[in-house]
Amino acid sequence: MNRAFNRKKDKSWMHTPEALAKHFIAYNAKFLGNTEVDQPKGTEVVKDAVRKLKFQRHIKKSEGQKIPKVELQISIYGVKILDPKSKEVQYNCQLHRISFCADDKTDKRIFTFICKDSNKHLCYVFDSEKCAEEITLTIGQAFDLAYKKFLESGGKDVETRKQIGGLQKKIQDLEAENSELKKQLQVLEEQLMIAQVPPGNSMSSKTSTDIFDMVPFSQMTPLVPLPASNGSALPPPASSTEIRRDLFGAEPFDPFTCGSADFPPDIQSKLDEMQEGFKMGLTVEGTVFSLDPLDGRC
Q1: Are 57 and 67 in contact (CB under 8 A)?
Q2: Contact predicate 137/111, CB 8 Å
Q3: DSSP 3-state assignment of 167?
Q4: How many CB atoms lie within 10 A of CB 189?
Q5: Which residues lie below 8 Å from residue 273, measured CB to CB, with a gap of 6+?
Q6: Is the pLDDT of residue 185 over 60?
Q7: Quick one: what percent of the chain has pLDDT higher than 90?
Q8: Backbone phi, then psi, for 263, in 5-degree steps?
Q9: Per-residue b/e over 163-188, b at no fewer than 16 CB within 10 Å?
Q10: Cα(153)–Cα(162) distance, rounded to whole angstroms?
């Protein structure tokens, strides 16, 4: 393995300082993965990490899994690992957290760097067929420019980047917490909606109605007068002793109670003649019928 942090005065770098200070240099590589290591630096440390990740990748390849391709964006602020198609950032390794970078002289496709993440150190391993050494030198140039900028600013610039990095980490943690709280709130809202739905047998206590949505008549149910359209109560029904009258205010006709004085004389005389004719009987085909109830003939 070869260290890439040799800050020699006569070192000739591959890129202009503006390219790394104002923009970034992009490379494509295959990402074998990352693994935790015990030390922040050391050739033997990265060798063990490379052997471990190569073995894991060999097993995944035998299962049909391909090595994922990534895009590396290198600048004086760090190394970003992105998806080459969607440009989604998978890892953002800030430069002041990278403690070691090297390429493998026995396998010129492999290069690695160690980055501190919280309280642990992770070794990132990549496979590049033609650019492994060039990528390592580019990361070394980014370190050299960042160190010069650190000396020019008296260390304030690095401290500012550290504060920005800490704030970005807090923002990510808060976004994850906010997402979790939204999920919990959605679960509580669903439980509240379920609790507000009445049970299936709650309609059994409601009075049943017929097809016209009317309550059926029951002798045990007292009749309650309904209010009139103007809001006042209807008058109570007339008692049985009062004389009922029709729509025109006249007393209805009753054949059992009416007498002779109920009709004019001419009409009464005709009724009497008809009644005498019925009493005398009617002969039909030799058989006598009598309408007189006192007559024994039938």
Answers
A1: yes
A2: no
A3: helix
A4: 10
A5: none
A6: yes
A7: 33
A8: -120, 155
A9: eebeeeeeeeeeeeeeeeeeeeeeee
A10: 14
The one-letter amino acid code at 265 reads: P
Instruction: For residue 162, give both structure tokens.
Output: 């550290």
DSSP label at residue 250: P
Cα(148)–Cα(146) distance, integer angstroms? 5
Residue type, 126: F
Cα torsion 44, 36, 4, 70: sign: positive
Place of tokens 């029709």: 246
> For the residues of 193-240, what is the DSSP string, one character each?
HHHHSPPGGGGGGSPP--TTS-PPP-TTSPP-PPBPTTSPBPPPPPPT
Phi, psi of 5 (to 5 degrees): -110, 20
Find out whether 113 and 137 touch, Cβ atoms under 8 Å: no
Q: pTM (2 decimals)?
A: 0.51
Dump pLDDT digits (tens) for 95-121: 989 999 998 888 889 999 999 988 899
**Tokens at 49, concatenated:** 């990490």
Query: Is the Cα torsion angle 12, 16, 21, 23 positive or negative in sign?
Result: negative
Residue with structure tokens 């008809």?
Answer: 274
User: Each residue of 200-246: pLDDT tens digit?
Assistant: 554 445 566 666 666 666 655 555 555 555 555 556 655 555 556 66
What 3-state DSSP class applies to 36? Answer: strand
How far apart CA 125 and CA 202 sit, in angstroms, is: 66
Residues ≥6 apart with Cβ < 8 Å to 87: 71
Token pair in block for residue 121 = 């150190």
